[in-house]
Specification:
Layout lengths: L1 E5 L3 H18 L4 E5 L2 H9 L6 E5 L8 H11 L5 E6 L5 H4 L6 E4 L3 H17 L2 E6 L2 E6 L5 E5 L2 E6 L2 E6 L2 H8 L3 E5 L2 E4 L3 E4 L3 E4 L4 E3 L2 H14 L2
Parallel strand pairs: 1-2, 1-3, 3-4, 4-5
Antiparallel strand pairs: 6-7, 8-9, 8-12, 9-10, 11-12, 13-14, 14-15
Helix pairs in contact: 1-5
Length: about 230
């Protein structure tokens, strides 16, 4: 896995750099990390052939306000499809991150606590782990990243993906446990893939393709918190 860090504060770059290498050692995976102190420096490196599976971008660099947001747009314009993780001291720019399909937000005040979980999610995303279930006596395997949502009705689950729909017996609670933290319960009857979220409000989540999923009042606070910190 190749990672690029772009932050004009050397202290934060070093902290993230060390934590990523430590995570690679603990979980036994190969990782290379390149550091850049600003957006211009990174873009010049891209012109020389730099690439990354993951870009960690500081939202506010060089006193530019939303410099990291503009940098994310430029990366996408250049065809860079690596995962983008925004590193920020505030959550004011979260909605803008949907434009570049930001993978996660990492609060600077919580780097040590949050980074291991973010790296785990990155590994799962890059590996494209399969999700399997039984339907009609057969085992069906799907790339969990492509699942849009699941809906529960009287012990029957409806799984919806761009390729089609699947109905099988099961518990939404159990499926949520099997799918992991990349999926979010937003309603008693709905479980959505965070990676497919385009936008959200207090009453609904909009997924890729314009699919609208309701957010119930009892789940609203947790939905807002999770999507602010863990959106793609």
């Amino acid at each position: 896995m190749r990672v690029v860090l772009c932050d004009d504060e050397p202290g934060y770059r070093r902290l993230i750099y060390d934590k990523i290498l430590q995570d690679g050692f603990v979980h036994d995976y190969e990782v290379e990390v390149a550091e850049y102190g600003g957006g211009r420096e990174l873009l010049e490196a891209l012109d020389r052939g730099e690439y990354a599976d993951v870009f960690f971008l500081d939202v506010q660099m060089e006193q530019g306000g939303d410099d990291g947001i503009r940098l994310g747009r430029e990366l996408r314009r250049r065809g860079q499809d690596g995962l983008i993780v925004y590193v920020t001291g505030f959550m004011d720019y979260v909605q803008l991150g949907y434009e570049v399909k930001a993978f996660r937000y990492l609060l600077k005040s919580q780097i040590e606590q949050m980074l291991p979980r973010v790296l785990r999610d990155i590994r799962q995303e890059l590996e494209g782990e399969e999700f399997s279930f039984r339907m009609g006596g057969e085992t069906v395997c799907l790339d969990r990243r492509k699942i849009l949502y699941l809906e529960s009705s009287v012990r029957t689950l409806r799984l919806v993906s761009p390729e089609g729909e699947y109905r099988f017996y099961g518990s939404l609670d159990k499926i949520q446990e099997d799918l992991g933290e990349g999926f979010l319960r937003c309603h008693r009857s709905f479980l959505v893939n965070i990676g497919q979220v385009v936008s959200f409000s207090g009453s609904q989540i909009v997924l890729q393709g314009g699919v609208e999923i309701p957010v119930s009042r009892s789940y609203g606070r947790n939905v807002k918190k999770r999507l602010l910190l863990e959106m793609r």
